[in-house]
UniProtKB/TrEMBL annotation:
SMART domains: HNHc (SM00507). Residues 70-119 form the HNH nuclease domain. This is HNH endonuclease. Gene3D superfamilies: 1.10.30.50. Keywords: Endonuclease, Hydrolase, Nuclease. GO terms for molecular function: endonuclease activity. It comes from Frankia umida.
Amino acid sequence: MAEALVLNATYEPLCVVSQRRALVLVLTDKAVMVESAGQVLRSAATSIDVPIVVRLARFVRVPYRSQVPLTRKGVLARDHHRCVYCNAPATSLDHVIPRSRGGQHVWENVVAACGRCNHVKADRAVADLGWRLRTAPRAPSGAAWRILGSRRMDPRWSAYLSADVTEAASA
């Protein structure tokens, strides 16, 4: 089974769970199916649509982290799996200001890079090489980034998630 998006009672995205867990939430009346996956599960007595999006029956207050955790998959998703220096397919991460020169391991200093650019740049600053970044690195924001992280998004979820993460997750 695939995954299902769980929305709060206010249609705010909360998390992604397995379709089996989403089905249990619907069967126990803890959630209502918003969208079906187009599949039907049958038993001897009943049949039920498999949910792809469910909404909780009661509002749940969930404390979120203020920042999205920095991960390799997250950086690659943010940069659309392309090198920020030459636009080739990215295979590694690079620190804009090298850690050997005091650079931090934070969203604003980590970018996706191809192996060639990462090797040529080594521990030098971008300005030393005369290179430019295609886009300035920044920390992703929004509830959808905290929920999806770097996993692939089902296209049917896009109506319930913000636009900035929708294009990054589908890349």
